[in-house]
Structures are given as C-alpha cells and as structure tokens.
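Batch 3, record 17
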Amino acid sequence: MKFSNHLIILSSIIIGFWLDDLLNPISIKLFLELNFGFFVFSYWIFALPEKLKTAAPLFYGLVTDLFFSNVVGFNMLFFVLTSYIIHLYVFRFRIFSYFQLSVFFSGSSTLYIAFKYLLLSPYNYSYIVLTTSFLINAVLWVGVYFVMRAFRRSFF
Amino acid sequence: MARSTPTYTPVRNYAIGFLLSAFILFSDIRYETFANIRAFVHASTLYSQMISRGLSENIGITLVSFQENKNLFRENKELKEQILKIKTQDFIERKDYKEKIQIIDFYQTAIGVFKNDVDIFKIASLDLTNYLCCSSHRIYLDNTSQVQIDKNVPVFAGSSFIGQTKNIYTNFIEVILFSDINHLLPIKSNAFYCDARGIGKPMLISCKASKNNGSFENVIGDTVFTSGLGGVFFKDIEIGSISGINSLSIDEIEVVITLKANPLEETFYGVMKKVHDEI
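Prediction for the assembled complex:
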C-alpha cells in the first residue's frame, strides 16, 4: 500500500480520536464514552485486512498515543490485539449480520474503555459508563461503518 | 465442505508487536520513559493550536476590518447622498421661498395698480424663436388650478400691461403680446392718439400718424399711455416710450414705441378677472 494511503487512514483515525476528545467531555455527563477513533481503526482493519498487517497498527497506535493518550503503548497494544483478532476471524466476519458486527465491535470498544480506565484512571471505572457505552456504541458503529465505507470507496 | 473459514494470520508478528507495545506501555507507566517525547508532542500540538488560533484570529480580524471598511464606505456613501439630498431640498426651499417673495411683491404691485380682481399666473412657456425673429408673439401661462379667465382681458407684468388673453385652454392661458403684429392697442401721448400695432420685434410697437394731427418734434423719449379707447385696457397706464419717428410719406409718419415691460424678464403675470367697465 502506498504511503499516501497510510496517511489517509491515519488522518481518519486521528479525526476520530479528535472527535472523541471533543465530544466526550459532554457525553460523559450522560455516562457515555464515545470511541469513534477506535471504530475507525477497526473499520480499516476489517475492510483492508490483506493490506494492513502488524506494522500498521503499531505505527497508528504509536501516533495516536503520542497525540491523544497519557501513556505511550496503550493504543499500540490494543490496536495490535484488535488487529490480530480481526485478522483471525475476518472471513467469518464477512458473513456476519450488521447486528453481530455491532455487538463485536462495540464489545471490543467497551473492553478498550474498560482497560483504559483500569490502567490510567481506576478511580473513575464505572459499570454504568461501560454498559451505556456498549449500547450506544453498538448503534453508532453502524453509522461509522457506512460513513467509512463510503469514504473508503472514494479513495481506494 | 469447509468446516471453518480460511485464515492466514501468522501469530509471530503479532506476538512481537504485542510484547513490544506491552513493554513500552509498562515502561512508560512505571518509569515514564516517554514522558519527554509525550511532553514534546503535546507542547508542539499546543503551539500549533496557538499559532493556528492566532492565525485564524488575525484572519478573522482582517476580515472584520474589511467588513468594517466596507460598512464605513457604504455609510459614507449614504451620508454623501443624504447631504446631496439635503442640499437639493434646501435649494428647492430657497427657490420656493424666493418665488413666494416675488409673488407677494408682484401681488402687492398689482393690487396697488389695479386695486382688486387680479389673478396671478406663472409663465408656462414662451416661444422664444418666434418672439425673437417673427411676427407671432405669444406666451402661455400655467393655469393648472383652472381659474376661470375670460378672453381678451388685460394681462400685465412688472408694473405695466404686456398683452391680453387670446385663448383659454384646459391648463393654459394663451396671451397675445403687444408686439405681436396681430395686436392693436389704442395709445396716447402728449402729442397724439393712435392705434399701435405690434411690429413683430421684441418690445416694439408702432403706429402711423398724420403730421397734421400734431407736432412730432422732440417727442422721442416721451412716455406713452393706454388711451382706454379700445374698451379693454385702463386708460393712462404707462406702457412705454417713443423710441423713434420714421417718415413714411410727405404727411405720414411712423411712431415707434418701446414697451416698458419685457416678457423675457418676467416670471409672473397678472390677469384681470373680467373686462373692466372703465374706459
């Protein structure tokens, strides 16, 4: 894959995390933590598994960590893990319904949020936040999926 | 039939990636290994944000100043237009005021001379080409208020008669001037009586007189009055003065009279309401 394509993917992930940074201070009052950045990353791995292997998640994670995280390595770790799981079941995912995909990706996102709280802010760990985020993100995933698919088709 | 979906995911690379990121994460949480790099990136981001914000603010200020300049230009233009409008209004008001004063003066003069029964009209048009060159000397008075005026009544301007009404139209009054060749005016002076006819030249009328009817020596400059013999004009109203004596034959002369009132200098004309009984 060309470097410009990597830049486009990275830019879209950064925009997703930037949106999270922008909206989460508001949404957290409703016990909801949005996770657009993670969804965007997951979508790219899901859509282009043969092009994005191990190095890409590491690099994307590193950049995201540097710009949006309080520690370096967290997004790298999660991106690699998610990438591995998606790669492992990518053909199975192709026959999944939207609902099943929503549940899987929303679950991954909730796991991401849960580990983030556990590692970086254990005092704010909340099951209400996790439950609400799981439900809302499951719905949001469908939107992100279609938007990103339209975006991908215009570039790749 | 395949029992599971095909996969080709070498675990080694992922394991290396996992271990590497876990190591980095641990070292950063435990020892803050990458704190400086993170701080540098955050500081760079903040600086970029500050710079971009400053730039956007400057652009915004520039745009606002452009808009303000535009508004000022528009306001300036509007003010200029208003000043022009006020100047024009002031000019019109002053003109109106001057005109009113003229009317009042004229009316006072008219009442002084002719007592009552006078209507004041403003000139509507004067056929200047005809007036300066040819025989027909007519003026038209504006009668938009449609005042009832009779035909053949005296018309005066300044302090003297100037002609008489010829026709009355809906909004205009046609006045035939003394200098029109079709107009005949009974006049008198100390030396003679005669019917003076217009000669088709501005402010000039003439009459033929017999040398036997009086002495015409040293009469140039003598004042000429209306005689009142036509039954239209008052008698003894000064209309002009003798400006020339031309000999036509052995016993006949032409007396040229220059009229007192000049239609080119008059704006307002007084018209008698009815033919006066006094002769």
